[in-house]
Amino acid sequence: MAESTSKSRKTKAMTPINNAYGHLQPQALDVEKAVLGALMMDKDAYAVVCEILRPESFYDPRHQSIYAAIATLSMDQHPIDMLTVAEQLEKDGELENVGGPVYLTELTSDVASSAHVEYHAKILSQKHLARELISFSSRIETKAFDETVDINDLMQEAEQDLFGLSQANMKSDYSHISTALMESEEAIKKAAESKGGITGLASGFHKLDDVTAGWQPSDLIILAGRPAMGKTSFALSLCKNISVDYNEPVAFFSLEMSKKQLADRLLSQVCEITGHKILTGQLDKLEWERFDKHIGRLFNAPIYVDDTPGLSIFELRT
Questions:
Q1: Percent of the chain scored above 70 by pLDDT?
Q2: What is the pLDDT of residues 67-119, one digit of tens each?
Q3: Rounded to a whole number, what is the distance in angstroms from the first to the last CA of the chain?
């Protein structure tokens, strides 16, 4: 009878988990241990992973505390090894919670080298991102079932949260100064070859281009002014110059004017006809000739207009 019970227990212990009835959170506990062991073995390893991992990148709460202690030691410019990490954990009141010095010893004894620490860190980062996406989708799903929640507000919230999630997990690689110097050298050579030293997109306003050398990649230009001071007209002039005169594509988002109003203003500029005559159609013979001659330039210009009213910044980004 005892033998039968023993076999029953053994059989039960060896029965695999049926994942059809539930999902485990994305995790890689063995990799977490390998990373922490490598960080306590190699004093330079933390510099390799510090931009990839945060304490919450680890699934096991014990590992989160250990990594936080390592980050604190690095910030304070203290050496990182098993003894200093144990001391820092004790200061934080977490040493016993993580399993004491015995567990730290296990972490370091299971790792032979820190050679793959960056690769392992990227695995943990991906697992953490997967967990965040699961949490994000679950939260949005719950709110979507709530009939008291405005769906448009929920859409904006979802876009904002997802954008924040992607930004938080972006990593900018460092590069040697020589890379930036090579880019500057190319820009200088390009400017020397161009007329007037324009290296970016010409705005068509020559004095402005003299100051800016043209609109440069990654520039954010803000046109500021009080209402009815001509900001939209000036922006359309820039749009017309860049698209019609220089054949560069432009996307124009208008929150206050319709596509028809924008088209009328562009026609007025390109055909050199007053806006009032464009609206009323009262053109004389010469103006009709100019209209017929120049409207084709606008038809072929790479201008794309979105006149969605009340467009949010997140919808604009989408």
A1: 89
A2: 999 999 999 999 999 999 999 999 999 999 999 999 999 999 888 788 899 99
A3: 68
Q: Tally Cβ neighbours within 10 Å of residue 124.
A: 24
The pLDDT value given to residue 285: 87
Helix axes 259-271, 231-240, angle to 10 degrees: 60
Q: Which two tokens stand for residue 294?
A: 């120049």
Each residue of 144-180: pLDDT tens digit? 999 999 998 898 888 888 888 877 766 555 566 777 7
Q: Tell me the residue type at 306.
A: D
Closest CA to 137 of 170, 164, 161: 161
What distance in Å separates the CA atoms of residue 33 and residue 104, rounded to the nearest whole number? 10
DSSP state of 195: G
Question: Beta-carbon neighbour count of residue 195 at 10 Å?
Answer: 6
- Tell me the CA distances in angstroms from 147 to 121, 151, 154, 284, one per residue in order: 41, 9, 11, 60
DSSP 8-state symbol, 257: S
What is the band of 301 on the pLDDT scale with cuts at 50, 70, 90?
Answer: confident
Of 121, 105, 98, residue with least CA distance to 35:
121
Query: H helices of the chain, where?
Result: 2-14, 29-41, 45-49, 61-75, 82-92, 100-109, 117-145, 151-168, 177-193, 206-212, 231-240, 259-271, 275-280, 285-299, 313-317
Say if CB 20 and CB 57 are below 8 A apart: no
Chain-centroid distance of CA 173 in Å reads 14
- Rounded to the nearest 10 degrees, the angle between the axes of helix 82-92 and helix 100-109 is 150
Q: What is the mean pLDDT of residues 206-213?
A: 85
